[in-house]
């Protein structure tokens, strides 16, 4: 056992000779009894030692100048850390009962009278040293027990979590099996109708009415198959973060009204009471995806509401949010299903006839699309046969102003902006430059990142179309350098890249780009972005003669 682990004894005495005698006597037995001896010449010195060390016992002289033994003992026991240290008072006179009571009130554990009898001193000290060692052993055992308890609690939590994950995996596996069975059912139904109609067309003697009817059936069922495939692909893209939103300010009320017009035109709503209360509510969103959300919710209400039922659709701007609410008087949602209604592959009770049809992925797609827009979706229902309500909340934005149109006209009048195209694929760069040229855009070209930065600083284009995977320095570094230079900090930067995940879009925007477009870029999308850029006044940017392609 090292000195730091040994129990310590503190001897406190103002008389140097007495202090030396006691410490020398104790040190004779220190190795055999496995303790360490420290000393102090005053009460103040004793208090400092108590702050530095833990002691098995303190031998404290009663008669000391300044702070006597009783005052020192009281001060030692006032501190929480040293409150339990046993103190043996050492005195040269026989204490009467009053003195003994006073000593015990100050925390005395025992008395020693001088001259000290060595055997008595050793016996008393060994008792407290043994007690200190036992306490230290118990403390270490308690720490080990506490650590073991913590480990067992952590292990138990891990096992419980693993059991829950296993049960969830089993539920998911079962749901997937049911989903595959539903998918087979949903695909075979239209395929069967198409097969029968096709066979009918090839039969001799079939009348024109039957042929016309068969063609209508083939067209309708083909469209049904197409919708199934589109839903599957959209859900896959949404779950993997591959859907990129093309945002603009739009009115949810106008969008929902357009969706309702489509349902009415197809006759889907003729057997229902539709109550639509649509007040303007502007959001920053993707029109196609928001229309998909509204269509899925309305279709869901129609699918699960019997003919003659009531469907209420409201749009309202509430505080900082725009709220779309679709309520129906249909079959409702069972309490056990309600918490999972937006989970993938979850649908209500499956029956043989499956009168409602569908794959049960529409609401999962709704949730993912709403989350991509920074919104929330919730469902509520009193229970079976009591109807249900779905509510979408999206961040509200200011309404689009009519002044946008004159501003765009002014931009057109100002001339085409200069475009710097930074792309290492020669063929791709050449075709993109040629295409932009046919629309009247002056184009600069660079074949790598460093050349692109040099050309931007030399010619100060209005827009830079930058590939991400460039040699030399990549597109992220190109954007950072252009933003750091005062002359090019205002250039509109558009990333053209084959990387289309949400993480890629985040990295692009963090690097300083204004827009992230995924290859192959739709021409109209790119032209819309360029149309919003104002060209510099004459004399700035690209000279009249276009330079030859670089790189």
From TrEMBL:
Annotated Histidine kinase domain residues: 182-398
Modified residues (4-aspartylphosphate): 61, 467
Positions of the Response regulatory domain: 8-129, 418-534
Root EC class: transferase
InterPro entries (alphabetical): CheY-like_superfamily, HATPase_C_sf, HATPase_dom, His_kinase_dom, HisK_dim/P_dom, HisK_dim/P_sf, Sig_transdc_His_kin-like_C, Sig_transdc_resp-reg_receiver
Keyword field: Coiled coil, Phosphoprotein
Annotated catalysed reactions: ATP + protein L-histidine = ADP + protein N-phospho-L-histidine
Database matches in Pfam families: HATPase_c, HisKA, Response_reg
Coiled coil: 128-155
EC number, as in UniProt: 2.7.13.3
SUPFAM superfamilies: ATPase domain of HSP90 chaperone/DNA topoisomerase II/histidine kinase (SSF55874), CheY-like (SSF52172), Homodimeric domain of signal transducing histidine kinase (SSF47384)
Protein name per UniProt: histidine kinase
Native source organism of the sequence: Telluria antibiotica
Lineage: Bacteria, Pseudomonadati, Pseudomonadota, Betaproteobacteria, Burkholderiales
């Amino acid at each position: 056992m090292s000195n730091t682990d040994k129990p310590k004894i503190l001897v406190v005495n103002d008389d140097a000779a007495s202090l030396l005698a006691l410490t020398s006597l104790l040190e004779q037995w220190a190795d055999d009894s496995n303790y360490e001896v420290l000393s102090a010449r005053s009460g103040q010195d004793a208090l400092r030692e108590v702050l530095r060390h833990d002691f098995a016992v303190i031998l404290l002289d009663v008669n000391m100048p300044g702070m006597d033994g009783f005052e020192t003992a009281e001060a030692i026991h006032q501190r929480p850390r040293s409150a339990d240290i046993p103190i043996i008072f050492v005195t040269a006179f026989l204490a009467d009962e009053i003195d003994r009571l006073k000593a015990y009130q100050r925390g005395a554990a025992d008395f020693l009278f001088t001259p000290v009898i060595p055997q008595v001193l050793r016996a008393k000290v060994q008792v407290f040293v043994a007690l200190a060692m036992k306490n230290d052993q118990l403390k270490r055992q308690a720490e080990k027990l506490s650590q073991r308890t913590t480990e067992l609690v952590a292990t138990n939590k891990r096992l419980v979590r693993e059991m829950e994950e296993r049960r969830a995996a089993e539920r998911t596996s079962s749901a997937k099996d049911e989903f595959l069975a539903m998918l087979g059912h949903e695909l075979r139904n239209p395929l069967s109708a198409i097969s029968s109609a096709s066979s009918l067309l090839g039969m001799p003697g079939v009348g024109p009415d039957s042929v016309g009817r068969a063609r209508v059936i083939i067209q309708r069922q083909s469209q049904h198959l197409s919708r199934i495939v589109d839903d599957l692909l959209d859900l896959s893209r949404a779950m993997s973060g591959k859907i990129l939103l093309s945002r603009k300010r739009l009115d949810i009320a106008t969008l929902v009204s357009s969706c309702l017009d489509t349902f009415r035109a197809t006759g889907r709503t003729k057997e229902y009471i539709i109550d639509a209360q649509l007040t303007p509510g502007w959001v920053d969103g993707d029109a196609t995806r928001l229309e998909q959300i509204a269509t899925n919710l309305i279709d869901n209400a129609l699918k699960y509401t019997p003919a003659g039922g009531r469907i209420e659709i409201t749009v309202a701007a509430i505080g900082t949010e725009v709220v779309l609410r679709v309520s129906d008087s249909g079959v409702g949602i069972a309490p056990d299903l309600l918490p999972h209604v937006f989970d993938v592959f979850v649908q209500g009770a499956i029956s043989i006839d499956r009168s409602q049809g569908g794959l049960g992925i529409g609401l999962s797609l709704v949730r993912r699309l709403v989350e991509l827009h920074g919104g929330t979706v919730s469902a509520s229902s009193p229970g079976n046969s009591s109807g249900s309500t779905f509510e979408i909340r999206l961040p509200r934005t200011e309404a689009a102003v009519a002044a946008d149109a004159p501003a765009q006209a002014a931009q057109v009048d100002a001339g085409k902006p200069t475009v710097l195209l930074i792309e290492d694929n020669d063929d791709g760069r050449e075709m993109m430059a040629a295409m932009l040229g046919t629309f009247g855009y002056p184009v600069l070209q660079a074949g790598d990142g460093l050349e692109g930065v040099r050309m931007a600083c030399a010619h100060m284009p209005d827009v830079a179309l930058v590939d991400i995977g460039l040699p030399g320095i990549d597109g992220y570094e190109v954007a950072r350098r252009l933003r750091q230079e005062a002359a090019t900090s205002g250039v509109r930067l558009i990333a053209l890249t084959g990387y289309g995940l949400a993480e890629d879009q985040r990295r692009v925007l963090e690097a300083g780009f204004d827009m992230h477009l995924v290859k192959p870029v739709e021409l109209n999308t790119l032209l819309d972005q360029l149309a919003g850029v104002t060209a510099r006044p004459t004399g700035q940017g690209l000279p009249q003669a276009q330079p030859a392609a670089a790189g």
